[in-house]
Amino acid sequence: MLKEERKKELKNQIFLKSIELFKEYGYENVTVEKIASSCGIAKGTFFNYFPKKEHVLLYLGNSQDDLLQDIAQKYQHLKIKQQLLNIFKELISVYLNNSDLFKLTISETIRSAFKNESTNINIFEETLTDLIENAKKNNTINTHFASGTISSVLVGIYFNTLVNWSVNNEKNESIITIFEKQFEVVWEGIE
Known about the structure:
Elements: H1 2-25, H2 32-39, H3 43-49, H4 54-74, H5 80-95, H6 99-115, H7 120-137, H8 147-167, H9 175-190
Helix pairs in contact: 1-2, 1-4, 4-5, 4-6, 4-7, 5-9, 6-8, 7-8, 8-9
InterPro entries: DNA-bd_HTH_TetR-type_CS, Homeodomain-like_sf, HTH-type_Tx_Regulator, HTH_TetR, Tet_transcr_reg_TetR-rel_C_sf
Keywords: DNA-binding, Repressor
Organism: Gracilibacillus kekensis
């Protein structure tokens, strides 16, 4: 047990130091050697925890899986529409304080999804599918659309909102407001 805890602590230390270096020097200017040296570990040790530098950013996305479960649990007493909206709003809020890190994470998550290296999006969709399926069983939502299709569309507008906001974040409208508008359009078609 202690060994596993130490491994987890070291992985988190590598992650936090990497993020610190990315912020200070820019993602492209930070090498695995620089990360390892800053952590006081060998380059090979870095690769024991992260197969590539890009996986440090994916780790941030992976850590969101646990957050997603916690958020879903927190709002389980609400009607499905409000439950889903609150889940998305909390996930979006995680990125609001650091738009540069956000842009890197989103671009790497999307790139890895196309390479089939990441299951984050699949886990996200599966979690939402389960929530929607439960709402159907409890008759709190009445729709003829498949739960998986609904969750896929909702995840799609989530990422669309994040990507558009990261590219055009000089707009006066908040990212949550943008998402809520798109969510409402889609939800109207679901119910």
